[in-house]
């Protein structure tokens, strides 16, 4: 996304820290450090996996970005500033057992209403959750790395994320 200046309606408001990775292995500043924890025999080792060739992920977007740019993009998308209303409605129409539209998941939070989300990440250490209200006025984005944790994130992360999402979107 080389020229994101017009993304949300004017110069200075665009995606300034988003690049398509191609064969880039050096991350542009600022960036988080990604970690991967693995067992080598009897010992656990943590490796810095910040330098990766993400060209294997072109179907996943192959984008390197910041949480600020994720916020700008997801807010603009859900706020109706990127797609015509009929296409946005089609994108948000859930299908199948996991309530997946065309690029976003649709989640009913009960009394708090509906939210849209799509999380991203790269192998070995990075995660990027994106959540938004239907009008884009409330958006939660985060950059995560859990590869240096001494326990399996799958044991606690889903519950912690659900609590965070419900707190943000019901407040």
Provide a quick synopsis of the model.
By secondary structure, the protein is of the alpha+beta class.
Largest sheet data: 4 strands, antiparallel
Low-confidence stretches: 1-6
Helix content: 10-25%
Number of helices: 3
Q: Report the end-to-end length measured between terminal Cα atoms.
A: 33 Å
Give the helices and strands as they follow along the chain: EEEEHHEEEEEEH
CATH-defined superfamily: DD-peptidase/beta-lactamase superfamily
Strand order of the largest sheet: 5-6-9-10
Would you mind describing this structure in some detail?
By secondary structure, the protein is an alpha+beta fold. The protein has a single domain, classed as Beta-lactamase. It is 19% helix and 21% strand. The protein has helices at residues 67-78, 85-91, 157-170, and strands spanning 19-20, 35-40, 43-48, 63-64, 105-108, 114-117, 120-122, 126-128, 130-132, 139-141. The strands form four sheets. Strands 5-6-9-10 form a four-stranded antiparallel β-sheet, with helices on both faces. Strands 1-4 form a two-stranded antiparallel ribbon. A hairpin with a 3-residue loop joins strand 7 (120-122) and strand 8. It starts with 18 loop residues before the first strand and ends with a helix. Mean pLDDT is 80; it is low at 1-6.
Secondary structure blueprint with pairings:
Blueprint lengths: L18 E2 L14 E6 L2 E6 L14 E2 L2 H12 L6 H7 L13 E4 L5 E4 L2 E3 L3 E3 L1 E3 L6 E3 L15 H14 L1
Antiparallel strand pairs: 1-4, 2-3, 5-6, 6-9, 7-8, 9-10
